[in-house]
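dumping this here so i dont lose it
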């Protein structure tokens, strides 16, 4: 049984360990009950607030650049690719160091440090928003990437320390669902509030995140001390070498990385797709991202219900093939879309009134739900395959490979759009990539289930 932290919050008693054959509804009830526990709620809240802040700021910046500064789809895609690249660069360079620190220090202490840093980062970002200064905003995005790099391994690695073994998948699903609900809230807010309100909000949320992080129970290092290698390139190579030789981890990390490569391309092309193909306003672009976030949250919770708490990849191949099918569906709808009159954009209500609007929403939901169902069990593989003393480094190795894949995706879409590929054509490229993800998921299923 896993050891847990201090007494549960709000006066609830710890639940007894569940049998594996409990019915779906009881399993889901116990998973949701984790939200009333001090050993889970503070880390959930800290992650939720951080994800909200990240996406409120980044989405506000991207929509500002797309709708105010640039008037060329290629330049809009290039800027989105640049901002995405700056955010994920620290993951590639610093993830190995962050994983080592998380396995040698108290994870709750690291959370408090990075949350203090977030307040300063959001202050810089707020200045950029108020001055409409793109370089300052990009500096804040890069710093946010550093912040997320050091927090990333902890949000998953801390769960096996505070949760029972049969709660880990449920806890992972709730963290994923909460993350995408936070993305939902952040993206909606970015489309509807002005720069001044965004600047004030991100600072207030950063302060709230620090307070929430202070409530996380201690999570001291488990196992023998390790020597920290401060050389980022050497430590990254060693970390990947140590982790990737385990077949199920290798396949899980490769599948997750391909998923995020697909995700990064979709996020890059969504704003110019909305503006130039669907000829809609920034509020509709925010709606696209919001619908996508709702879908991933639904998929994250649904897969836990289907698997009944068991870590398995059996639904992975079908989920990612369905994701590719819905991407093709979106491509077909986009190809037949009737745009607004020249120089005009549909607002939210006018867009919804269009004949094909609900087909767009259905396609987005389908992409996101199947994507959430695909990726959540893979993250559970990362934290349940290795010893608790190695979980943070395992997640960090995954982050290094993920960030490399996302960088490749950003560079690929940058090169493709500069070579003349349209944003609708990029959807076909992404649909084809889903076939590779399905193959990796099938290999993982055959190796583990």
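and the seq i came up w/
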């Amino acid at each position: 049984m896993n050891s847990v932290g201090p007494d549960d919050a709000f006066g609830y008693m710890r639940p007894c360990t569940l049998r594996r054959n409990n019915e779906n509804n009881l399993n889901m009830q116990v998973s949701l009950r984790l939200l009333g526990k001090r050993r889970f709620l503070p880390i959930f809240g800290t992650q939720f607030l951080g994800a909200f802040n990240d996406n409120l700021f980044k989405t506000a910046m991207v929509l500002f650049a797309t709708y105010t500064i640039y008037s060329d789809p290629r330049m809009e895609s290039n800027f989105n690719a640049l901002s995405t690249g700056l955010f994920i660069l620290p993951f590639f360079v610093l993830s190995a160091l962050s994983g080592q620190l998380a396995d040698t220090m108290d994870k709750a202490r690291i959370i408090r440090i990075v949350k203090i840093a977030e307040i300063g980062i959001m202050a810089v970002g707020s200045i950029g928003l108020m001055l409409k200064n793109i370089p300052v905003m990009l500096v804040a995005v890069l710093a946010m990437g550093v912040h997320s790099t050091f927090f990333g391994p902890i949000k998953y690695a801390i769960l096996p320390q505070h949760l029972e073994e049969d709660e880990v998948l449920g806890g992972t699903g709730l963290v994923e669902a909460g993350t995408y609900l936070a993305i939902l809230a952040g993206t909606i807010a970015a489309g509807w509030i002005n720069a001044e309100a965004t600047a004030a909000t991100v600072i207030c949320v950063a302060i709230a995140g620090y307070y929430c992080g202070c409530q996380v129970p201690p999570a001291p290092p488990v196992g023998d001390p390790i020597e920290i290698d401060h050389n980022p390139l050497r430590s990254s190579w060693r970390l990947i070498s140590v982790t990737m030789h385990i077949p199920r981890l290798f396949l899980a990390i490769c599948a997750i990385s391909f998923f995020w490569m697909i995700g990064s391309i979709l996020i890059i092309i969504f704003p110019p797709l909305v503006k130039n193909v669907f000829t809609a306003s920034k509020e509709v672009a925010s709606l696209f991202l919001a619908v996508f976030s709702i879908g991933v949250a639904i998929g994250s919770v649904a897969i836990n219900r289907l698997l009944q708490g068991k870590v398995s990849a059996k639904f992975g191949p079908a989920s990612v093939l369905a994701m590719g099918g819905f991407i093709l569906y979106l491509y077909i709808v986009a190809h037949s879309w009737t745009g607004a009159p020249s120089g005009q954009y549909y607002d939210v209500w006018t867009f919804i009134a269009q004949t094909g609007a609900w087909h767009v929403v259905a396609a987005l939901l389908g992409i996101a739900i199947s994507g959430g169902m695909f990726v959540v069990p893979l993250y559970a593989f990362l934290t349940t395959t290795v010893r608790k003393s190695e979980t943070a480094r395992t997640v960090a190795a995954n982050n290094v490979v993920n960030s490399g894949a996302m960088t490749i995706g950003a560079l690929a879409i940058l090169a493709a759009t500069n070579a003349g590929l349209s944003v609708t054509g990029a959807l076909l490229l992404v649909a084809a990539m889903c076939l590779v993800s399905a193959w990796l998921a099938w290999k993982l299923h055959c190796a583990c289930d």
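Residues 164 and 413 are 42 Å apart (CA to CA).
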